[in-house]
Model the fold of this input.
Amino acid sequence: MTATEGPRARGDEELSPGDGNSPGRRGDTVAAVVRQWRAVHPGLDTGPMEVIGRINRCAALLQQAEDAPLRRAGLSRAEFDLLGALRRTGHELTPSELARETFSSGAAVTKRLKQLTERGLVERRGDTRDRRVAHVRLTDAGRDTVDGILPAQLAYETAVLSGLDSPELGELAALLGELLGQLEGRLGALRA
Amino acid sequence: MTATEGPRARGDEELSPGDGNSPGRRGDTVAAVVRQWRAVHPGLDTGPMEVIGRINRCAALLQQAEDAPLRRAGLSRAEFDLLGALRRTGHELTPSELARETFSSGAAVTKRLKQLTERGLVERRGDTRDRRVAHVRLTDAGRDTVDGILPAQLAYETAVLSGLDSPELGELAALLGELLGQLEGRLGALRA
DNA sequence: AACAGATAATTTACCCGTAAAGCATGGGCG
DNA sequence: CGCCCATGCTTTACGGGTAAATTATCTGTT
Done:
C-alpha cells in the first residue's frame, strides 16, 4: 500500500509560500516528491511516477476513507468484497471462485468464510457430485447486509469524488479503464 | 488492497462470447463487475465505482508487478520507500519524519530501520540537543542501492504503462493529480 | 481395479502492519 | 527546583494476509 513515490515533503516548507498543508491550490504530494527526485537525479524520466505514484497514493487514501461506512456494519473491506461478489453474481460460488473474484489467496478466503459463516452471513453446502468442492451462498441476513450497506457506500464514494466534475470523472474512468485493460491483459506476461 | 468492486466474473461466461479470461479486447474486469451490479440493482449510481474500483484494482496490479525490480535487490516496497525518502530529500530524517514520508506508522518505521540498519543501508545518530530524537541517513551502500535500483524501477514502470500513449498518460496524470489534491486536502475532514 | 497426477479446500508457519501501551526525555509553570 | 504533560521512539499484542505443506477427492491411463 505504498508508492515508490512517497508522500509529503517535510523539508520543503521553503518552497510552499502558503502554508504547506493545504493541497488543492498547488500540487498534490506526489508532485512534490517528483520535484525532489528530479532535483537529485536531473536525468530521470519521472513521467511514470506521476501516474503510478498517484494511483497508489489515491488508492491508499481512498481505502482508508472508503471503509468508514463498512466499519459501521462491522465488516472489513475484504469481507465486504466477498459478500459483494456473491451478491452481484447472484448465485453460489465456490471458495476458489471467490478467491478469483476477490483477488486473494484461497487461504484468506477460507478464513473469511469461517468468520462470515459464524456470523450467519453466508452458508455453505457440499457439492453432491464432487465432494472436494463447496458452494457458498449468502444467507438472507447476508444479502440484507450487503443491500443495506451498498447505497451508503456508493453515496460515500460519490462524496469523496465530489471534487471533480462529471466530465472529468468520466474521462478519468475511461483512461483508468484503458490502463486497467492493458494491465490485466499484459501483466501476467511481464513477470520479468 | 481491494475494491468494493471485485474482479473477474466467473458465472458470466454466457455473456462473454470469447473466452472470459482475456480482457483487452472487451472491457476490463471492473466494467464487468459494474455490469453485474447494475443488473442486480438497476437503480444504483455506479459512477463512483468505475473510478474508485479501477484505481484500487490498478494499484493492486501495479504493486504486484512493480515490485519485481525491487525484489531482485532484496528489498520490499516499504523498505525502498523509506530509503527513497532519504535519498530524495537529500538529508537526514528523523523516524517521525520518515513515518510521515512513507505514510506508515512509527512502529513500522522502527522495525524497518532496525532491519535496514543491520543490513548496513542506513545509519542513525542521536540528536545532541534532544536525546529523544534520532537522525537517520543513508550509508554509501544505501545510496548506491537506491541509485542502482531507481533507473530499473522507472524503466519497468515505463514498460508497464506502455499501453497508453504520451498524451493519454499526461491527461491521466493530470486528472489523478487533481483528484489526489482534493483527497489530500479534504479527506481528513470527511471522517464521517 | 489400481496407480499417478491433478484439483479443491484447509491447515500451518510466518511476515508485516497497526494500535495501544510503555519508556525516556524535554519544556513549561507553579 | 519539582511536577505535569507533551513529544519521540520503541515494545507488545494481535489481526490479517500469503506461501507452502496437507488432506481429501476426482480423473485418466493402463
